[in-house]
Amino acid sequence: MIVAVIxxxxxxxxxxxxxxxxxxxxxxxxxxxxxxxxxKERVTHAVVLDVTDERSLRSQNISDVDTAIVAxxxxxxxSVMAVAxxxxxxxxxxxxxxxxxxxxxxxxxIGASEIIKVEEEMGEIIASKIIAPHVLQRYNFAAGxxxxxxxxxxxxxxxxxxxxxxxxxxxxxxxALQKRIAYIxxxxxxxxxxxxxxxxxxxxxIESDDIVVLVGSEKNFNRLFSELTEK
Length: 231
Known about the structure:
- It is elongated and about 65 Å long.
- It has helices spanning 10-21, 33-39, 54-59, 76-88, 101-109, 118-131, 161-164, 166-170, 218-228, and strands spanning 2-6, 25-30, 45-48, 67-70, 94-97, 114-116, 135-142, 145-150, 173-184, 190-197, 211-217.
- It is 35% helix and 29% strand.
- 27% of the residues are buried.
- The protein folds into two domains: 2-118, Rossmann fold (3-Layer(aba) Sandwich), CATH 3.40.50.720; 125-228, Alpha-Beta Plaits.
């Protein structure tokens, strides 16, 4: 997969490096030489250019990328021009960062495939961590529905999936269990390995250290979170 990341501020640089770490071929672009220099060893290719310059963009074969991410936030005009130029050059999927409702509206109008609202999403993440500190990861995949990784702790320790009644009481489905399994190394030392059960059965037992992956509605998750935080 080839991804272009345009705008190498904190958000853009972090996104580019994580994509590269996960195996993507990443072209990192900014007109600031210092920002490009900071990231050039952490991506496939880092280049200094003005994304509003059509000839410069064409020189990077930008139309061949699978996805372009416009991470520019502070300069709305530059962000809009970058999206417009990418669409003109035939990039099929353009993901753009929006910093306001008006910015989001304009990006949609000129053809951005997806919008990232970093400030709003960070607010959601921080609020979720305060309300539900046992939640490790949360992925919103449709309006009002999530996949959540969490530790259920002592409340469900030693119970089978059937005995937990999570599905009956909360209308949430357990789709995977991640367990830490103790073992002895060849050197005779105690260690742990992670095992993921991606097809849990009704009689599988939940341990307090298990990471449980659940899927369901926000309303039902909130009921579960409320009871887990009760003392």
